[in-house]
Protein 1
Amino acid sequence: MRKGTNRGTLIGAAFLMATSAIGPGFLTQTAVFTGSLGASFGFVILLSLVLSLVAQLNIWRVLCYAGLRGQDAANRLLNGLGYALAALIAFGGLAFNIGNVGGGALGLNALFGIPDTLGCILAGLSAIVIFLFRKAKTIADQVVKILGAVMILVILVVAIQTKPPLGEALKNTFLPSAEWKSLFPAVLTLLGGTVGGYITFAGAHRLIDAGVTGKTRMKEVRLSAVLGICIAAAFRVLLFLAVLGVVKRFPGVNLSDPAENAAIEGIPAYAGISNPAAYAFRLGAGELAYRFAGLVILAASITSIIGAAYTSVSFLKTFHPSVERHENLWIIGFIAVSTLIMTALGGAAKLLVFVSALNGLILPLTLGVCLIVAKNKRIMGEEYRHPIWLWALGLIAALASAWVGVTSLGTLADLFK
C-alpha cells in the first residue's frame, strides 16, 4: 500500500459498499426466497456474488482511474447522459432509502417492541445525527465498520444454532434443484439489493471524495473493492445458512406469514410478526435470537441509510455547486424525506423486496456506461488499458442482468400478492 494512504478510508469504502449491499432489504429477501426456494437459493447468492464482483471491479477501476463520479463520466461520454443517470439513481436511492428506514422500524420492533411509526422516526434520526458533525464522513466510516462487524458476528452465532444442512446447501449452490425459471425473480431482486442502483457506486465515490484516484492508486482501489465483496459474501452466506436451517427444521413454513403456520404441526405460532428474517431467527434459535435479529436488522438499516443517502447526494452534486458546498445538509434532507414517506406508507417488508428489484433494472445501464467509458481515450487518456478479460466479463454481466430483468418483470407483481 502506498505511503500516506489512509487505510481507514480504504476499509471504510469497502464497508460502505458492503453494508449498503447487505441492508435490511437483503435480510428480508434472504428469508423470503430461502423459504420458497430452499437450498437452491445458494445458487442465486453465488450468481449475484460473481456478477457483483465483476460489476464492482469494472466500475471502481474506471471511475477511480479517471477521478470522475459516475454521472460526470457519463456526461463526458454524452452531454446530458450524466444528468439522466444521476436523476435515475437518485430516485432509485430514495426508493431504496425509504425501505431502509422501514427496515430500521422492523429492527426496533423486534429488539424493543417499538411501534412501526415511532421506529421509522428513530431509525431516520439515528442516521441524521451522524451528519450533524463536520467530520461526518470519517464518523460514517467508523460506524459502518463497527456495525458491519457486529452483524457478521451475530449471524455467525445464529447460523451455528440453526444447524443448516451444509452438504445440501453446497450441492444446490452449483446444481440447483429448483426450476430455473423460478430463480429469475430472486436473481433480479438480489442483484438490485446488492449491486443495483446507487450501491455499485457507493465505495467508488467515497474513494474519489478521499482523493484515491489515478493510475498509481489502482492497486488500492482493487483491494478495497475485493475486500467489500468478501465482507458482503461472508454475510450473505452465513445468513442464507441460518435461514436454511430453519426451513429444513420446519418443512412447509411460510416465513412471510406466521399466521399461516398455525395449522402446521410442530411450528410455533407467533402472532403479529411481519418480519420474515426476525421470524426465522425466532423459530431457529428462540427468543434471544429474535432480539439479536432486531439488532442485526437495525444495524443493517442504519448503515444502508448512510450509504444510500451519501451516494445518492453524491450524484446530485452535478446539478448545482451548492449541493457539494452543503453536502451534509442535503444528506440530512434526503434522510428526512425518506423517513417521512416511509412513516406515511408502511408495509416495509414487501417494499424492501420491491425496491431491490427496481434497482436491479438500473444495473445494466450503469455498468454498460462504464464499459463504454473504459474504451474512450478522450475520457480515460491514451495510456489507460482496461483488462480485456475484465471488460468481457463486464459485458456478460451487463447483458445477463438485463436479460434477467426483462424476464422477471412480469413476476414482480407477485411480491405483493
Note: The domain at 7-411 is CATH 1.20.1730.10 (Sodium/glucose cotransporter).
Protein 2
Amino acid sequence: MNKLFKWLLGILALLIVVCLTFTITVGWMRTRYMTSMSDDAVKYKMQQVDRLLNTYFIDEYDASAVEQAAADGAAAAMITATGDRWSYYISQADMQAYEEQMTNSYVGIGVVIQEVDKGMEVMSVTAGSPAEEVGIQIGDICTAVEGQETSELGMDATQKLVRGEEGTTVNMRFLRGEQEFDVTVERRAIITDVATFEMLDDIALITIKNFDYHCAEQTISCMEDALEQGAQALLFDVRFNGGGLKDEMVEILDLLLPEGEVFRSVDYRGVEEVDTSDAAHLEIPVAVLVNEDSYSAAEFFAAALQEYGVAQVVGTQTVGKGNFQYTLELGDGSAVSLSVGKYYTPKGVSMTDVGVTPDILQDLSYDDNLSLYYGNLSHEDDEQLQAALQALK
C-alpha cells in the first residue's frame, strides 16, 4: 500500500512538472510573439491588410501602388506623430514640385493658364521665355497639346503634358479670336518672379512671395530699381509668404540693418551659428506688411527690422515658428523635411508660438483677405496697405 502511494505521488509530481513546463513555454512563446508584433507592428499590420485584400476584395487593384501608398502613409504618419507641425514627409511623386518650389524655377514654356470653356487661356507670359519667342500672347486659348484636346485633358493633365525635359519641344494649338494656329515650343528652365515692385507715388511697394532661391537677387534688384526711380521709402509685403532659406533672407537684411547680429541658431548637436550684418546699410524709411500667414523667414524678416528700430510692422500677428528644417532624402527618392534646430531673433527671442506683434495692428475682413490671397484686392481697398502707407508718409 505504501509503495502504491509513493508511485501515485511520483506520477502526480511528474504531471505537475509537465504542466508547469508547458505553461511556462506557452507563456514565453506568447510573450515572444507579442514582442515580435510590437517590434514590427507596421509590417504585421500591412501583411494583415494585404491578406484581406487578396482574399476578400471584389475588384482588381494595382498591388505596387497599394504598397507604395502604404509606405508613404507609414512614413508620413511617423513624422506627424512627433507632434511637430513644421516637419513633414515628401513622397517621391511630390519631389519634383517640391524642388521647383524651393528653386523658384521649373522646366516649361513660360506661361500661366486658367481653364475656360474652349480650353486653357493664357493669363501671363514670362518675359524672354520660349512662349514669348514664338509669339504666344495673353488671351490666347490653348486648345490642344500634342494632338490632345485641352478641354478633355483638364488643367493638371495639360500642365503635365506641356512640361517635360529641358531642351525638348512640345506641339501646341492656340485660338486667337477666330484664328487657329500651331506652334512648336522648346522647353527651358524658367525662373519665376519671387520679388516684384511698383511705385506708389514716392514709396516702393516690394512684394516678396518667398525666401527661397533667387529671392535675394530679385529683391535687391527691386530695391535698386526703386531707388533709381526716386523711391523715398520702402514697403515690403510678406503677407502669405511661407518663408524659405536663411541665407537669402540674411543677404537682404544685411542691406537694411546696421552692424550687428542678425540671426542666431542652435542645431540638434548643440552647435551655435551666428549671422551678422556689416555697418553699411540703407538709411531710408521702411515698413513691413505681415499677416497670420507670414511664416518662418517672412516673420523673422519683420522681427529683425522691428527689433533694430529700422521698420514699422503693420498687419496682424504672425504664426510663430521657431524651428528650422533640413530636407533629408530617403533611398527611394522621397524625403523628410525635419526640424533639426531652433533660431532666435537679434535680441535672442524665440518666436515659437509667439510670432511678431505688429506696431500697427490692422486686420482685413474675411472677404478682403481672400481677395488679397488671390491677387484681386485693389490697393484702395487694402486697409493694411493703406495703414502702412500712412505710417511711412
Note: The longest helix spans residues 2-39.
Protein 3
Amino acid sequence: MAAVFENKNILCGISGSIAAYKVCDWVRSLQKEGAEVKAVMTRAATKFVSPLTFAALTGNPVYGSMFAVRDEESIPHITLARESDLILVAPATAQTIARLAHGFADDLLAAIVLASEAKIVVCPAMNCKMYLHAATQENIRKLKEYGYLVLEPECGMMACGEEGPGRLPEWVQVRDALIKALSAQELAGKTVLVTAGPTEEPLDPVRFLGNRSSGKMGYAMAAVARQHGARVILISGPTRLAPPPGVELIDVRTAEQMYQEVVDRFDAADIIVKAAAVSDFRPTRMSATKIKKNGENMGLELARNRDILQTLGAMKQQKPTPPLLIGFAAESDNLLAYGREKLEKKNLDFIAINDITAADSGFGVDTNRVILLDRKGGQTNLPLLSKEETARAIWSRVIGKG
C-alpha cells in the first residue's frame, strides 16, 4: 500500500519568521512518506534559514526570485503553481498573510498561490499582538473565505519574550491537516462513533481488571475518518494517547460507562466502529478499601458485562435506516471461523480480525495484520501495516462498499 503522501507534489512556502527552522523537519518527514517536495523562500526567510538547507533536504533547487533564470522556457510562478498538489505556507508571517489576503503578486510565493488551483494550507506564526491585531484577523478571515485551510497557532512563550497565540503548530496537527486537504471527503456530513482502548473494572481503590489494549487502532480509525470529512465522536477507555485533531473525545473507564455512552449516541451515528477491547467481566463488588493479603488464596467472584456490540446489532434491527456497524475481534485461533460467527451473531456489516498471538499484530504494537470480512461474504486480507495504514485500508474498503 502506498504511503499517504506517495507521489504527491508539495510546495513549501517559507516566509520570514524565526520558526522557519521547524519546517526543515517537516520537509524531511514529508519526503520520508513519499512526497516530492520543493521549497519557495521569501527574501526575509533566507535571513533565518539558508536556502542551501532546504535544497539539501529536498534534493531540489530552492526558488526565491520571480525572475531567476533556470529554464528559459519556464515561468516559475506558473510552472510551480501547476505542478503542485498542495501548497503549505509555513511559517506564514503577518506580511505574507496580508499579501495572500489581498491578492498581491509582488513576490514569487504570493504569485504562485494566486496562480494555483492546488489546496492551500496556511500556518500562521508571529508575535501574539500581531496575530491578534484586527487587520491580521480580518486577513485570516479572507483566506478562509477563499477556501484556504488556516491552522490555529499554538499559545506559548515567543522568541520575543511575550506569551500568547502565535507559535507554529506542531507537526502532528499540520500533518493531519495536509492529509485532510489531500483526501477525498467521502464521509462529509456523516457522524462516525468510534470506541477505543481498554476498559478497567475496579477491584479496590488501587487495583483493577483490565487488558493490554493501547487504543492505537481505534484512535487511528477515528483520525482517518476525520481526515475524510466525518464528524467523529471518540469514546475512549484509559490510554496514553493524545486524541486525534478535530475529534470529540469522551473519556470513560469501565465497560458499563462505555455501554451507556455508546447507546446514548446510537441514534446520532451514521457509522459505528467498535474497536475498544471491552472487559467481558467485572468484580461483583468493589472493596472501599485496599484488599489486604490474608492467607494464601483469595477467591474473586465475577459478573458478566453487557455485550456492547451485540446490543448495537440488536438495536440496528429496530431502525429503518440503521448505522453501518464495524466490529473488531482479537482472536488467538480459528480467526475466520470465529470472525464469521461474530459477524452473523452480532449483526455486523464488517468485522476486522487480528491474531493477538503474533508479535507484530494486535495489542501494544504499532503494526497490525487484519482480515476484514463483510456481511456479503467478502474477505480482504491486509498485509502487515502500521495501524494508521490499516485504518486507511479499512475505511477505503468500507467507503467503497457502503
Note: The chain has a mean pLDDT of 92.
